[in-house]
Design goal:
Elements lengths: L18 E6 L5 E5 L4 E5 L5 E6 L8 E3 L4 E6 L4 E4 L1
Antiparallel strand pairs: 1-2, 2-3, 3-4, 5-6, 6-7
């Protein structure tokens, strides 16, 4: 969304699901998580999306560690944290 115009811009070509998190990565693309399926996608700057992993249902806010390239997901219902 552009703050000045309040215009909302879609970040993906197609609807993905029940999004919980959006996190910028080293390639200036985004990681997003779908908490209902546990799927994590990488969204490119032109809107292309690639499913990069599937964890468990209730995957929450992604932490991307830029130095190591690791992704950390809290899995809420299972009361755990997963590192990828």
């Amino acid at each position: 969304m552009a703050l000045e115009s309040k215009k909302i811009t879609k970040i993906s070509e197609k609807p993905i699901g029940n999004l919980d998190e959006i996190q910028l990565n080293n390639d200036n693309n985004f990681y997003i998580s779908d908490w209902a399926t546990g799927d994590v996608y990488e969204i490119g700057r032109k809107g292309e999306s690639i499913k990069i992993l599937t964890s468990e249902v209730s995957a929450g806010d992604i932490l991307f560690h830029p130095d190591s390239g690791k992704k950390v997901l809290p899995i809420n219902r299972q009361n755990s944290v997963w590192w990828y």
